[in-house]
Amino acid sequence: QVQLVESGGGLVQAGGSLRLSCTVSGGTFSNYAMGWFRQAPGKEREFVAGISWSGGLTYYADSVKGRFTISRDNAKNAVFLQMNSLKPEDTAIYYCAASKYGLGTPPKYEYNDWGQGTHVTVSS
Predict the structure, then answer these.
(1) With left for phi above 0 and alpha for psi between -120 and 50, is residue 26 left, alpha or beta?
(2) Which of 81, 106, 118, 123 has a CB 3.0–4.6 Å from the CB of 6, allowing a cystine?
(3) How many other CB atoms are there within 10 angstroms of residue 79's CB atom?
């Protein structure tokens, strides 16, 4: 059973930064593409960023491109989301997800395992 645990969420002022972490256990981490999704109240869960198993391919939602950076450290079984220039509309629960033999592209159906989420609140 693959388990994913997110951390690093919290409260930050608009314009500030946070770094989210996701640690993975129970599988071969380097075989998984990884993604970050978020869900705000009343909204659908949406793709934020993804990264291939090798780290050679990355994908970003238009809403975060240029502000967020996804990265991974396969030696530590971890994926990260560096979030800069945060806006109130970034407020959401952020979820880490794993895709076996995927590319880290946006479709939710490509992801097999999900973390429990970490809360990010950006104040004005």
Answers:
(1) left
(2) 118
(3) 31
pLDDT digits (tens, 9 = 90+) for 35-49: 999 999 999 999 999
Handedness of CA 100, 106, 107, 109 (dihedral sign): positive
Q: What confidence tens digit (pLDDT) does each residue in 55-67 have?
A: 889 999 999 999 9
Of residues 29 and 46, which shows the higher confidence score?
A: 46
Instruction: Using the structure block, give the residue that is written with the tokens 């990260």.
Output: 80
